[in-house]
Amino acid sequence: MKKSAVITSLLFLGLALGAFFESLRLPFGRVSAPAAGFFPAVLAALLAVTSLLAFAETLRGGGEGLVQRDRLIWKKILWTVASLLAFGFLFESLGYLVTTFLFVTCSLRVVERQGWGPAVAVGLCASLVSYIIFGLLLGAPLPAGFVRF
Fold it and tell me: Are 52 and 13 within 8 A, CB to CB?
């Protein structure tokens, strides 16, 4: 049994329970008309279930050797933080579509060392699909930048 896996799953379980009980202070609403506490409660419950499953898997001794331990590569971490900062600074001026496309493409190209083709294809799909879901279907206000529909 891995001590770090047990501790991590228990920490996430504690975080989930804390978030769940705090979300109960907010109005819950209904599934058809969710209020402010609905999504935090649901997400906290999902995190708790996932933590319990990870804890049970660790106790059973399963999953050993399935995840290979990578070396901590500071260059990847710095690139990721830099691209997140750039995303935050450029979000309003360039707009959601362009900034998301650039962020996903750069992350795949620079951090994950993917080729230009897959990086551009995934960046384009991720920005368009997420814009359709959040901007069009859910009506979330996303900055247009210079790309307008």
Answer: yes
Contact between residue 108 and residue 123 where contact means Cβ atoms under 8 Å apart: yes
**Per-residue pLDDT tens for 43-95?**
999 999 999 998 888 888 755 544 555 566 788 888 889 999 999 999 888 99
Q: What is the dihedral of CA 108, 147, 139, 118, to 10 degrees?
A: -20
Between CA 47 and CA 7 the distance in angstroms is 15
Sign of CA dihedral 35, 40, 46, 49: negative
Query: Scanning the structure block, which residue is given the tokens 């999902």?
Result: 46
Total-model pTM: 0.56
Token reading at 107: 């992350």
The count of other CB atoms within 10 Å of the CB of residue 131 is: 20
Helices 96-106 and 116-130, axial angle in degrees (round to 10): 150
Residue 85: burial class (beta carbons within 10 Å; 0-12, 13-18, 19+):
exposed
